[in-house]
Amino acid sequence: MKAAIFTIDAMLAFLLASATFAVIAQTLNYNSPGLEKQNIFSAANDLLAVMQNDGTLVSYASQSALDINSDLAKKILLLPQNFCGNLTISIYKYQSGGFALQKKSSALRNCVAGNKTVKAKRVFYDSPSQQYGIAEFEVWLKERVEAPK
Amino acid sequence: MRGILYTLMTYLILSVLLAYAASTASAFSEKEKLISEKISAERIFHAWNSVGKNLAGLLNISAGKTDYTFKITDTLPSSGDTISILQNYETFLQNYFSDGIISYRFEDSGGNKISLQNMDSKISILPWNINYSWPDFGKNSGVLESNSNGLKFLKVVNMTMFVNPVIRDLNSIAWSGYKACDQSTTDCLIFNLTITDGAKTWVSNVDKFDLKFQAQLKVDLGPAGGPNWARATVGKIPTLINLDMQNSNITQTSSMVFNTTDFFINYPSKLNVSAVGIKKVDWLNG
Asked: Which helix (H) or strand (E) holds A83?
């Protein structure tokens, strides 16, 4: 009788141990949400940094909204395949005591929207036209779609 | 007896697994915290960089360092209201760039908050404190200054002055007070000057200026009898080169070649970008 109780107790403990082990195994396979966020945040920032450093952002001040749209559409394709994004340029001029929006252009690489979006921003100024601009890049990962079995 | 043995062994295994689970959970949480801090640091760095990048444009200059050379292009006098432009830039940052997570402030050397338009109107080449400055942001003159120590690192200044209106008479352009460097000279500036209006060009035939003396040339511009002129003055140390004008514009492009690459360009304001628990404070630089 005593042996049976010990055995049942041992089996229960073993089940508990197995459950713990399963949780650990799950944790090891778990994708870090922070790491995913960091990757997409870096990609967004890097693209905007390049656009600022090579003068692209400032050059938008003297281009039409249509031309900017077409350039943004090319830029957004530089993102890796599994990234989605919305790249927006807003250009303002200070007049009559406030900032008036001169033009706003955007390009969207749309795919199944994920819930982990990050936004990178850059500010720029065009000296000849005295216009101030903001570049915003919202990026998220394409949702993983399970292949049909 | 066997039951007790099984139980003890199972409890032992369970304890090891629990300890491992606790350690894994702790490492995972630490990693997430580290990543979160890295994202914050990246956010701060990019924000600092983006805000600082615009300063040359706001001052309507182009300035940059390549290896041994610092190159600057500047137009005198200022074509726009630089003070308003700087003021508006700060307002723009507050209204459109700040997102509630990151805060920005411009600071003086003591860490006190300043408005951008109140910073000194100069650019410094460090570590020698060679300054290119204006009396104010109206830029009615532009002066390059250095002490004897800084001058030792400056090999040559090549300057082109683009003047407007046009040069009246090329033949009337000449240095006065020029003294060439000789063996007794302690402070010598090698300065190559070209003046052009786009059609007519004058090139200085002297280039070794003894800075104990002051050399000057005045270029009359526009129609005869008009009040337009541009002037370049070299010396006396600590003044290396002083440009000024009347009823005229000068766009000067200077290449200053140093005998070392170990120098950097600072604007006279620090930029402090901070979020909770992390910040980057540094001189705005070119």
From this structure: strand A83-95
Which ipTM value was assigned to this complex?
0.82
Nearest residue in chain B measured CA to CA from A13: B10
Dig out the tokens for A58 from the structure: 């400032």
Q: Whole-angstrom Cα distance, residue B192 to residue B234?
A: 11
The total domain count for chain B is: 1
Residues 63-122 of B with CB under 8 A from A: 80, 84-85, 88-89, 91-93, 95-97, 99
Q: Chain A contact for B27, CB < 8 A?
A: no
**How close A44 gets to chain B, by Cα (Å)?**
11
Whether B10 is covered by a domain: the verdict is: no
Residue B86 lies in a domain: yes
Query: Is B53 inside a domain boundary?
Result: yes
Q: What is the full DSSP assignment across A2-28?
A: HHHHHHHHHHHHHHHHHHHHHHHHHHH
Residue-range definition of the domain harbouring residue B271: 46-285
Q: Is residue B23 part of a domain?
A: no
DSSP B96: I
A contacts of B87 (beta carbons < 8 Å): none
Asked if B17 reaches chain A (Cβ–Cβ under 8 Å), the answer is yes
Q: Which of B180, B3, B161 is nearest to A1 (CA)?
A: B3
Give pLDDT, residue B162: 97
Please determine, for residue A148, whether its predicted confidence score (pLDDT) is greater than 70. no
B7 and A28: CB-CB below 8 Å? no
